[in-house]
Amino acid sequence: MTPVRPAFAPWLATTNNITAGFLAAGPNLINMAGGLPAPETFPAEELAEIAAAVVRDNPGQALGYSPVDGLPALRDLLAARFSTEGLRLTRENVLVTTAGMQGLDLLGKVLLTPGQVIAAQFPTYLGAIDAWRMHAPVYRSFAPDDNALDPEVVLAGAQFGYMVPNFSNPTGRLVGVGLRRRMVEAAHRTGTWLVEDDPYGTLQYDGVALPRMITLSGAMGDEGPYDGPVIYMGTLSKEIVPGLRIGWVIAGPAMIRAMAAAKQGSDMCTGGLTQGIALRALQGGLMERTQPGVIALYRARRDALCDAMATHLAPWFDWETPVGGMFVWAVARDPAFDTDRLLGLALKAGVCVTPSSVFDPAGGYRRAIRINFTLNAPDRLAEGVRRLAVAAAELQAGGA
Amino acid sequence: MTPVRPAFAPWLATTNNITAGFLAAGPNLINMAGGLPAPETFPAEELAEIAAAVVRDNPGQALGYSPVDGLPALRDLLAARFSTEGLRLTRENVLVTTAGMQGLDLLGKVLLTPGQVIAAQFPTYLGAIDAWRMHAPVYRSFAPDDNALDPEVVLAGAQFGYMVPNFSNPTGRLVGVGLRRRMVEAAHRTGTWLVEDDPYGTLQYDGVALPRMITLSGAMGDEGPYDGPVIYMGTLSKEIVPGLRIGWVIAGPAMIRAMAAAKQGSDMCTGGLTQGIALRALQGGLMERTQPGVIALYRARRDALCDAMATHLAPWFDWETPVGGMFVWAVARDPAFDTDRLLGLALKAGVCVTPSSVFDPAGGYRRAIRINFTLNAPDRLAEGVRRLAVAAAELQAGGA
Question: pLDDT value at position B18?
Answer without folding.
Answer: 72
